[in-house]
Specification:
The chain is α+β, with helices and mostly antiparallel strands. The chain has 11 helices and 15 strands. It has helices at residues 13-24, 35-39, 64-73, 88-92, 104-119, 130-136, 139-148, 166-175, 233-245, 308-323, 366-375, and strands at 3-8, 31-34, 53-57, 125-126, 180-185, 194-200, 203-215, 218-230, 248-252, 258-259, 262-271, 274-282, 295-297, 330-337, 344-350. Strand 11 (262-271) and strand 12 (274-282) form a beta hairpin.
Length: 379
């Protein structure tokens, strides 16, 4: 009998869906350990040691107490970066400020440190190994790994050296003959800290989920579900400098194929090495994330002119991308299909990208598929 340990924030929908999948197969519910508890070091994962033991780390999302603890954990990790820093004690006392992008690089350093600690405590197998989670949470490193494995990805402007500032970005765009780029917070998720930036002559424009706020002389940045457009160079520079200081991936802004007159891309979930569930995301802006108000479509809505052969090749590319992380049982992959419906690129990998509610493969949701594949011992 499988014994499962689920490490998650209990209040999230992910926990409920995973436990429901276990019930469908007559399995006992996973033993739930909250990140909040684990981060207080009340538990050590090495206390669990049994045959057929599996650990599952889920997204540490929607819990500000957990965020503060991870920021605090990153306070003593010095990577020589230019990111904002805060001491551990001060981090634990950060006031809640909904949507504010707080110390994202330091948060990641704390997340990386804790995952490395937990990896050394585990007796058993894991759905996604902490080392893989660490890498997939770093867009810069992840894209470099994909490129090194000949996976088609958008051209990176910081492939060989970091871009340090807004002015440096403009210089590199000129030097690399690239007038449209995406600047993505390296450790963001759900489109947090993403800017689609373009220049045309002396004009420039940034379309972004970032809201820039100045109150009483303090400059703050928030993650917003409302897509904003900035055309003032000082405002754009503020946002881009903030993201670059916190570590950001900078890549060519690639055109997407269109569906119903709007651009779209696909989220593909690879489980046990095979592409399974797919959702199409049809957008009104360069960011197609569903939580931003974009529309979802089933895979059956793909353009009729997209040949089965090319679609099969695209899914195979997703499987090749997932194979770059052989210690991960599943991942979500953002797939860009070019307007010619032949070329395609992998935009991102998401270690926790299996939350696709209402999207099925052979009648199964993602969590049910994961348990079924686990029981068949195909991983």
């Amino acid at each position: 009998m499988l014994k499962l340990i689920l490490i998650a924030n209990p209040e999230t929908r992910r926990v409920e869906l995973f436990q429901q999948a276990l019930t469908r197969f007559g399995l006992p519910p996973a033993e739930l350990i909250s990140y909040e508890t684990l981060l207080t070091e009340q538990y050590a994962l090495d206390k669990w040691n049994a045959p057929n033991l599996w650990f599952r780390f889920d997204a540490p999302e929607r819990n500000f107490t957990v965020d503060r603890a991870l920021i605090a954990a990153g306070a003593t990790v010095n990577d020589g970066g230019r990111h904002q820093r805060i001491g551990a004690i001060a981090a634990y006392h950060l006031p809640a400020d909904k949507g504010r992008i707080l110390y994202p690089r330091q948060w990641y350093l704390g997340w990386r440190q804790r995952l490395q600690d937990w990896a050394g405590q585990i007796h058993g197998r894991v759905f996604n190994h902490p080392a893989d989670i660490i890498t997939m949470f770093d867009k810069v490193q992840c894209q470099r790994i994909l490129a090194d494995h000949n996976i088609p990805v958008p051209r990176s402007l910081n492939q060989h050296s970091s871009i340090r500032s807004y002015e440096h970005l403009r210089e590199q765009m000129n030097a690399q003959d690239c007038q449209r780029v995406f600047v993505k917070l390296a450790h963001g998720s759900s489109a947090s800290g993403v800017v689609a930036y373009e220049r045309r002559g002396t004009a420039e424009r940034a379309v972004t989920t970032v809201e820039r706020v100045i109150e009483q002389g303090e400059r703050r940045f928030y993650n917003s579900r409302k897509i904003r457009q900035y055309c003032d160079s000082h405002e754009i520079a503020d946002i881009i400098n903030f993201l670059l200081n916190e570590s950001a991936q900078v890549e060519a802004w690639m055109p997407k194929a269109r569906l119903e007159g709007r651009e779209f891309d696909a989220r593909v979930v690879v489980i046990a090495g095979k592409a399974r569930q797919v959702v199409l995301r049809v957008g009104n802006s360069p960011m197609t994330n569903l939580h931003l108000g974009n529309d979802r479509r089933e895979v059956s809505a793909l353009p009729k002119s997209l040949s089965p052969q090319y679609w099969s090749e695209m899914l195979h590319t997703c499987e090749r991308a997932a194979a770059c992380f052989p210690r991960s049982f599943y991942c979500g992959i953002d797939l860009l299909i070019a307007p010619n419906l032949r070329d395609h690129y992998i935009l991102e990998l998401n270690a926790f990208g299996d939350l696709l509610q209402g999207i099925t493969w052979q009648g199964w949701d993602t969590y049910t598929t994961e348990i079924a594949m686990l029981l068949e011992e195909k991983f």
